[in-house]
Design brief:
single chain; alpha+beta; four-stranded antiparallel beta sheet; 9 helices; 8 strands; about 25% strand; globular
């Protein structure tokens, strides 16, 4: 079994919902893709018709306003990503997904994923679990932005993305944390001194 296939199988098996046959069928209908650092999976205004699994690399998820990138999230290896609202509504995306490192991915078309849901209740259960996880993660981040200090947000970020400082530019990390790059430099000095 190739490493990419093993990665996806391991990820899907953790749900304890899908059978080996379901997982194999899913893998067989994916398409392996490679994109270079700086390339986009989706840009604002495009309709997102794919779900991606990141095997290797790093992706930033952001919106652009007045020339400024406002980072919504990051994705590193072993994660599914998409422009969720565009994917679900088939309307133009408001967000960008950009490779911050060379990436190896597997993608699935929406039409294939829809057929899975129509023909197998286990995939509906899996999709609900994924959506629940993403919603709770989003809510946790929103609460943190409202209640936590910038230093606490940074420490929590390091727990979630321990290698992010070596992967993502500091201005993107600062944007994700809702602070200016200068504030991030100050916080990093404080945290490093502790």
């Amino acid at each position: 079994m190739e490493p990419a296939q093993e990665q996806i199988k391991d990820f899907l098996k953790k749900s304890d919902i899908l059978s080996e046959e379901d997982i194999n069928h899913f893998w067989e209908n994916g398409k392996t893709e490679k994109i270079s650092k700086g390339d986009y999976l989706i840009r604002e205004g495009q309709i997102c018709k794919k779900l991606y699994f990141v095997h290797q690399g790093a992706v930033s998820i952001f919106i652009l306003s007045d020339g400024n990138e406002h980072v919504k999230d990051f994705s590193l290896s072993n994660k599914f990503i998409t422009s969720y609202t565009s994917f679900q509504t088939e309307k133009p995306s408001s967000i960008y997904l950009r490779a911050e490192r060379d990436c190896e991915l597997t993608s699935w078309n929406k039409s294939f994923l829809n057929s899975l849901m129509q023909n197998n209740i286990q995939w509906i259960a899996f999709a609900k679990n994924m959506a629940d996880y993403l919603f709770m993660r989003k809510e946790k981040r929103e609460i943190s932005l409202l209640l936590d200090s910038a230093e606490t947000r940074y420490l929590n970020f390091l727990k979630e993305y321990p290698q992010a400082s070596q992967v993502f530019p500091q201005y993107l990390i600062a944007s994700y944390l809702g602070i200016k790059p200068q504030s991030l430099s100050r916080i990093r000095k404080i945290v490093g001194a502790k």
